[in-house]
Amino acid sequence: MKTIIEIQNLKCGGCEKTITDNLSKIAGVSDVVVDHETSTVNLEYVSEDSLRKVIEKLSKLGYPVTGEKNDIGKKATSYVSCMIGKITS
């Protein structure tokens, strides 16, 4: 199944790389495309469990889905994730 997920705190290509790298490692998830201009993640998944893992991973990386609580801890985590993406690109 294909889905588009709207997320928060997505700023740049570093964020995109971190998200793409991490979500691509989740079993049952493929074709991950992240767009910081629209704050969206497009992907294919095989089960609801895979999608749940994607949403949990996004939150842990500091990119909660739109509508989820976005406290200062998540915002700070997203900056760290962003820097890691920039360094590893």
Describe, in plain words, how this protein is organized in 3D.
This protein is an alpha+beta fold. The protein has one domain (2-87): Alpha-Beta Plaits (2-Layer Sandwich), CATH 3.30.70.100. The protein has three helices and three strands; from the N terminus they run E-H-E-E-H-H. The chain has helices at 13-23, 48-61, 72-87, and strands at 2-6, 29-35, 40-45. It has a three-stranded antiparallel sheet with strand order 1-3-2. Helix 1 (13-23) runs antiparallel to helix 2 (48-61) and helix 1 (13-23) crosses helix 3 (72-87). The radius of gyration is 12 Å and the shape is globular. The model has no long low-confidence stretch (mean pLDDT 95).
Sum up the structure in keywords.
single chain, 89 residues, alpha+beta, Alpha-Beta Plaits, three-stranded antiparallel beta sheet, 3 helices, 3 strands, metal ion binding, HMA_dom, HMA_dom_sf, Copper chaperone CopZ
